[in-house]
Amino acid sequence: MIAAGGNAVDRKYLFIFILNDAPYGSERVYNGLRLAASLVKGEGVTVRIFLLGDAVLCGLSGQVTPNGYYNIERMLAAAVRRGAEVGACGTCMEARGVHDKPLVQGVRRSSLEELTQWTLWADHVMVF
Predict the structure, then answer these.
(1) Superfamily the domain 12-127 falls into
(2) CA angle in degrees (0–180, nearest 5) for 92-95-96
(3) Which one, of 54, 68, 2, lies nearest residue 24 by Cα?
(4) Could you give the strand order of the β-sheet that contains 13-19, starting from the edge strand earlier in sequence?
(5) Domain locations in the chain?
(6) CA atoms within 13 A on the CB side of 113
(7) How far apart are CA 74 and CA 78, in angstroms?
(8) Measured between alpha carbons, how far is 16 from 68 in angstroms, rounded to an integer?
(9) Model-level pTM?
(10) pLDDT tens figures, 52-103
C-alpha cells in the first residue's frame, strides 16, 4: 500500500471502522466492510472494527442470505481471518436482546471504554 506522496514500506497504518447500521437494509455496513477487507490486506496495515448500535446484529452467527446476495457474517469472518480485530458494544447487544446469542468467530463483546482506547490508538477513524 502506497500513500500519496510516500512509500508505505516504512510506515504503519492504523484504522478503526465504526459501523452503526443493521447488517441489511442499507449498504453502509457492506461498504464499510468492503473497505476494511481491502485495507487489512495491505502490508503494515492494522484494522479494528467496532459494531455499535444496530450494527451489533452484524456480529451474530447463522446469517442466511439468498444466493448471490452479500453475507455480512462471511465478510466479518474474512476480515478476522486476515487479521482484523472485531468488537461489539456490550450495552448495544443487551439493548437488542442479543447478549446471549452466538457471535461470528473472532467477534467479541466489547465496551465503549475499549472503543475510546481504539480511537486514541488509530491514525484513521472511519464511520459507516
Answers:
(1) DsrEFH-like (3.40.1260.10)
(2) 90
(3) 54
(4) 107-110, 85-89, 45-51, 13-19, 124-127
(5) 12-127
(6) 1
(7) 6
(8) 28
(9) 0.90
(10) 999 999 999 999 999 999 999 999 999 999 999 999 999 999 999 998 899 9
In the chain, the N- to C-terminal Cα span, in Å, equals 22
Burial of 120 (C-beta count, 10 Å sphere; 0-12/13-18/19+): exposed
- Crossing angle, helix 72-81 and helix 28-40, to 10 degrees? 20
Say if residues 17 and 48 touch (Cβ distance below 8 Å): yes
Rounded to an integer, what distance in angstroms lies between the CA atom of residue 33 and that of residue 15? 12
- Grid coordinates given for 65: 442470505
CA distances, 76 to each of 36, 53, 122 (Å): 10, 17, 20
Question: Does residue 15 sit in helix, strand or coil?
Answer: strand
